[in-house]
Amino acid sequence: MRILVTGGAGFIGSNFVRRTLATRDSVTPVVLDAFTYAAHPDNLRDERGAELCEVVRGDVRDAELVDRLVARVDAVVHFAAESHNDNSLLDADPFIGTNITGTVTVARACTRHGVRLHHVSTDEVYGDLALDDPARFTPETPYRPSSPYSASKAAADHFVRAWERSHGLAATISNCSNNYGPRQHPEKLIPRQICGLIDGRRPRVYGDGANVRDWIHVDDHNDAVWAVLDRGEPGRTYLIGAEGERANVDVVGDLLECFGRDRGDFDRVTDRPGHDRRYAIDPASTRALGWAPRHPDLRAGLAETVAWYRAHEDWWRPAAAAAEARYRRRERTLG
Ligand code: NAD
Ligand code: DAU
């Protein structure tokens, strides 16, 4: 089986490639990635610097290139996206281009060649829940995205469904909650605070920090993607989550403890505009495929993630410096 992995040089896509190579002898991944600031070439290299699989540098909006690559494979797993909410608030254009036009380009090529598409989406398409609401997101929850990022992912999901219904595309969609683990870009909450703590800086929490995210280890997300590829039904949506709801202040407190610091030793900074309050996934649709998370203990997963960042400073230092420069600009803009 040959599989095209778009966005395979990013955090979750490269983990998908690594897990696939480690667990599936019969699958040959080919990566298409534009190598934006979010990618890291080492994500797809072994310890000696050799590439783990065929890697094509290119854009998911390049219809001719996408068509040529899709013609060579049996399935596409579409991870490529602009993925950071804060960036989408500063400039939505790359999100509209990559996340919407890029997804339509991939859907068109898959339809033309009769190739199965798995589209990787996010729980953010459902908007947010109140902290005291007992509800969780299900595949029936109406779409209500809040940020330009989540609106672009919601639009992409709708286009995949439109291509499925109107043009006969065989597609599945998964909407996953917040991932953590090795090789996550240091602009995101958990690696940002870990890299800062390694350098002796205090974590920075937006607003009151009571916002809840539903954390899942990236290995568990990708095992669930494989469950959908193996046993999911085209036309259906699968929600992926590990029942890992935790408030931001508690996640930051856990990280501080990993560094032997007081749980309250962080700074509160100006809140993210439109900041979603709480995400929570009901994972029944994916559990029904026989999938279950193997990393249910978030605190243990965070400690392992801290150890990875401590051991890979060369990997994150340049990206963290660039991300912190962007955050300084953000703080000047927001006050
Ligand atoms: P990431 O930002 O780490 O990686 C994105 C990758 O896409 C990068 O390698 C980048 O170079 C590539 N890319 C961007 N624009 C491209 C383009 N025009 N053409 C080709 N490649 C391009 O993102 P991630 O966190 O690994 O997320 C991967 C996918 O999973 C995204 O679709 C995201 O919406 C979704 N998702 C992420 C999370 C999360 O917690 N990170 C949760 C649920 C869903
Ligand atoms: O829910 C899935 C989504 O999770 C994915 O679709 C996105 O691609 C991914 O980036 C993530 O979105 P979030 O906006 O939830 O992740 P982020 O790591 O940016 O922030 C997590 C929470 O932490 C959020 O409530 C904002 C807050 N935060 C973030 C940063 C970077 C802080 O309090 N301080 C920070 O410095």
Automatic annotation (TrEMBL):
NAD(P)-binding domain location: 4-294
Cofactors: NAD(+)
Reaction(s) the record says it catalyses: dTDP-alpha-D-glucose = dTDP-4-dehydro-6-deoxy-alpha-D-glucose + H2O
GO biological process per UniProt: nucleotide-sugar metabolic process
Listed EC numbers: 4.2.1.46
One function term, GO molecular function aspect: dTDP-glucose 4,6-dehydratase activity
Classification via CDD domains: dTDP_GD_SDR_e
Enzyme class: lyase
InterPro entries named among the record's database cross-references: dTDP_Gluc_deHydtase, NAD(P)-bd_dom, NAD(P)-bd_dom_sf
Family named by the database record: Belongs to the NAD(P)-dependent epimerase/dehydratase family. dTDP-glucose dehydratase subfamily.
Name of the protein: dTDP-glucose 4,6-dehydratase
The species this protein was found in: Corynebacterium sphenisci DSM 44792
